[in-house]
Amino acid sequence: MAGGVAGAASLAFGAGAAFAATPRITLNPTQGTPATVVQVQGTGFCASPPCSQAQIVFQGVTVAEGIVVAADGSFRASFQPAAGPSGWKTVTGQQKNANGMWITSAPATFYMTLAPPTPTPTAFPRTPTPIRSPSPGPSPSATSGSPAPTVTPNAAGPAAPGQGTPPGSTTSWWPWPAVIAAAVLAFGSAVFLVSLYRRSSL
User: Could you count the other beta carbons within 10 Å of the beta carbon of residue 45?
Assistant: First the structure.
């Protein structure tokens, strides 16, 4: 009899300890976009009939509800994050106890990231590049007139002075006028000196 009472007391204590456990939740994964499906594992919740079903609250918004708690106080559920800016978000699990009071789990954290928008490629019409035909080159023109005469070197030796002497030749005729002028000037001076001498001797 004493053993039966002790067993019943032990069972009641164990049940009370289970109900007194702090509710907790774990998330998998712990970061993602609003399109991410997050798995939730809950422990330490109330499994007795007077307690309500559990629900998940994401940053103050209920994202899953009607979750049945197993006899051991655990549950499994999933949700998608509520839309919002990126950053750390708070997630909790909660339910009402037999007295209608909310029991809230220790908060879990989820890091929200925003997926970059996929750029839409812009199609531009392609303008065909015209193919350039090669331009015809200048047509060869016929040379008018007779061809230039070919100069044949003179095989008879150097030309005589004054007859076809090439420019720059040292045999040019231009020094002779100067020589004649110098001779006339010298002759006139001599005549002038002779007349002076005769006058002085008279």
Answer: 28
| Farthest-apart Cα atoms in the chain, separation | 204
- Residues paired with 31 in a beta bridge: 111
Mean of per-residue pLDDT scores for the chain: 76
Q: In whole angstroms, give the CA distance from residue 19 to residue 76.
A: 18
Q: Name the residue ranges covered by the structural domains of the chain.
A: 2-112
Say which residue the tokens 């708690």 belong to. 69
Q: Nearest CA to 40 among 53, 24, 51, 52? A: 24
Q: Is the per-residue pLDDT at 72 higher than 60?
A: yes
Instruction: Identify which of 44, 50, 162, 46 has the alpha carbon closest to the alpha carbon of residue 106.
Output: 44
CATH superfamily, region 2-112:
Immunoglobulins (2.60.40.10)
pLDDT digits (tens, 9 = 90+) for 102-117: 999 999 999 999 876 5
pLDDT digits (tens, 9 = 90+) for 137-159: 555 554 555 555 555 555 445 44
Strand 54-58 with 31-32, pairing:
unpaired
CB 161 within 8 A of CB 175: no
What global pTM score does this model have?
A: 0.50
